[in-house]
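Our platform keeps sequence and structure together, in a single record for each protein. Such a record has a labelled line for the sequence and another for the backbone structure tokens. The tokens are whole numbers drawn from a learned vocabulary of local backbone shapes. The remainder of this section carries one protein's record, kept here as part of the documentation:
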Amino acid sequence: MGFHPHGVQGRAFVDGSITQDINDINNIYQVVGSDKLVVLKRREASSAADMCDLCILTGHESTLAG
């Protein structure tokens, strides 16, 4: 996974092809946790307020089990 201010991009190990692509110019994303769960902080790009959402990224393997 590669992270940038407006989203995230996933690529296949085998051939480097793009498997996931999130590019949202209306929001700014920041990685705030990445132990067993990847957690992103999301806030509006046009807002000066400190309000934000937290997003948990999960993949094809269960990261919530055990």
In short: The chain has one domain: 2-57. Residues 2-57 form one domain. The mean pLDDT is 84.
